[in-house]
UniProtKB/TrEMBL annotation:
Organism superkingdom: Bacteria
Transmembrane spans: 29-48
Entry protein name: DUF4369 domain-containing protein
Pfam family, one: DUF4369
Domain DUF4369: 49-140
Phylogenetic placement of the source organism: Bacteria, Pseudomonadati, Bacteroidota, Bacteroidia, Bacteroidales
Keyword hit for Transmembrane helix: yes
Organism of this sequence: Prevotella disiens FB035-09AN
Keywords, alphabetical: Membrane, Transmembrane, Transmembrane helix
Length: 355
């Protein structure tokens, strides 16, 4: 059954007052021509991807959306009015959209040319969000609901099994990156095995090929590489460059106010910085630098912090090769000597230096 949309007469209502048997040949041709137009109007527009959403327990607000694989450029804003929202983009190839909700939780939507999806969610239970309309999004909905109450080790286990069951799906690429690569203490060996499995089914998937190159670099430790040059202003308007990280042991770190692991790493690194043990720069991937400034003040974070509002689409983040939240690397004498240093490792470093 085709679903009726506001402003369009879909097949059921059209068929109720017209039937081709009662018309001459020319009128039958016109009938089928009009019918084809109606069928298109009742689905997604060719060359576009559309999202219609309905949220319970939120009347007005804003969502942010970005794409880790270039489906859109930069960061877009979606307005919520009366608990509903609509978002449509040109779409020439399959892509991934990351929607950031008002509570800063993030959820992936998989776009495809001519496709459309409907999102239904309770703002207080976003982990149970339903997305219907395309196969990939319905697969992601099933996985999202499966891991809604699972522990991190269980989530990784479910992600591995999902990839093995669906190596042909772009959802598997996203889950591998999220649960096995970007996760704290990533399972790089397991990720490499899953990537090899997916490449057999999706050899031309650009995101998958980039992930394959990334995991190779991570397995090699990404050590002894020169830190990329950069110039950026912090939230107070001060200019920061590579020179801020020259000399003693230094760190550059990504974090966000909605990611507890990243805040843990930030707080530990801040203690090291305040005691003069290390140099550091943090990059906050929140969308609003004003709120970031308040967070830094409220929590006595004195590490120079950059926030350009572009989240993971930030040009600086891409220049530095930082790919997740949290992410970091250690620099000594301008050379990257360690990648994705854990909070526990930072704490152990602090204890050792305090002795």
């Amino acid at each position: 059954m085709l679903e009726k949309q506001e402003g369009a007469v879909c097949f059921d209502s059209f068929f109720s007052f017209i039937h081709p048997i009662n018309f001459p040949l020319m009128k039958q041709i016109v009938y089928f021509f009009l019918l084809s137009l109606l069928l298109v109007s009742c689905g997604g527009r060719s060359g576009y991807f559309k999202i219609d959403g309905r949220l319970l327990h939120i009347n007005q607000g804003e969502l942010y959306v970005y794409s880790p694989d270039g489906a859109i450029e930069g960061l877009d804003t979606i307005k919520i009015e009366g608990g509903r929202f609509t978002y449509e983009i040109p779409s020439q190839y399959n892509g991934t959209l990351i929607i950031v909700f008002p509570n800063f939780s993030t959820h992936a939507i998989f776009s495809e040319p001519g496709g459309s999806v409907e999102i239904k969610a309770d703002a207080s239970h976003l982990k149970e969000m339903e997305v219907k309309g395309t196969d990939d999004n319905e697969l992601m909905t099933q996985f999202r609901q499966q891991v809604a109450t699972a522990s991190p080790p269980e989530q990784e286990k479910y992600a591995i099994q999902f990839v093995k069951d669906h190596p042909e799906s772009p959802v598997s690429v996203f889950l591998t990156e999220k649960y096995l690569v970007a996760a704290n203490g990533g399972s790089y060996k397991q990720a490499a095995e899953l990537i090899a499995l997916m490449l057999k089914e999706q050899p031309k998937n650009g995101s998958l090929n980039r992930l394959a190159m990334q995991i190779t670099a991570l397995q090699q430790g990404n050590k002894e590489k020169k830190m990329p040059k950069f110039t950026a202003k912090d939230v107070n308007g001060n200019m920061l460059t590579n020179a801020n990280l020259l000399g003693k042991e230094s760190y550059i770190l990504t974090w966000s106010s909605w990611n507890e692991d990243s805040k843990d790493a930030l707080n530990t690194l801040n203690t090291l910085y305040q005691k003069g043990y290390v140099k550091a720069i943090s990059i906050c991937l929140d969308p609003s630098y004003k709120e970031v400034k308040k967070y830094l003040t409220d929590n006595n974070i004195t590490i120079p912090t950059i926030c350009d509002g572009e989240m993971l689409e930030s040009k600086l983040v891409k220049t530095l090769g930082l790919t997740s939240i949290p992410d970091n690397y250690k620099i000594v004498n301008g050379q990257i000597t360690a990648r994705r240093v854990t909070s526990n490792t930072l704490r152990q470093r602090l204890i050792k230096l305090d002795l």
